[in-house]
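Example: ATP synthase subunit a.
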Amino acid sequence: MTLATNLNLFDQFLVPKLLGMSLLAPAMLLTAMLIYNPQDRWLSNPLTTLQSWLIAKATKQIMTPVNKPGHKWSLMLISLLTMLILNNLLGLLPYTFTPTTQLSMNMALALPLWLATVLVGLRSKPASSLAHLLPEGTPTPLIPILILIETISLLIRPIALAVRLTANLTAGHLLMHLISTAALSLMTTSTLLAGLTLTILAMLILLEIAVAMIQAYVFTLLLSLYLQENV
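Written out as structure tokens, the predicted fold is:
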């Protein structure tokens, strides 16, 4: 009974399939349809104005720590932020699937982007990029150890990006599933406790909306900081 309950609990994170084909890619492309496409008009409507204002503010916040040569990455980073926010929020809708709860997908996003920032640094200023592996003024006996530690910390960055995003979203979805199950069970025994549980669930959903946006912002901001180190 316990094994079956655990399987049902984690079934929500399985990639849905149709005729044996994974629906992960269509789920990601579906979120692109949620972005309002402005039309060629002299006057913009409030939705277009709000969307443009939010994109401008997000771009300013993300690109603030980056030097001017790295501003060419702004379009890619803001597109990544928008995609992550929409995919994170997608899982909060009923009968939907959250693509960003899959560690494989998050690694597929984090690894190439992190590697691109490293390669940019090695191509534009290799001496400065390699200097990050050895802090200035390091005693001679500690040089091999510090180089090893800094190399490991550099290589673990994409793993940390992917695991952070996956763990935060997965934990929130599991908690909502458990609380909603408890609320349904309490409806037959105690209406007061069931109402209290539903209130907690509503507050948790609001918190998860904030977490979905914050985690997307943190993912993109850390990439911009890695880019700053190399440009």
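Residues 22-33+44-230 form one domain.
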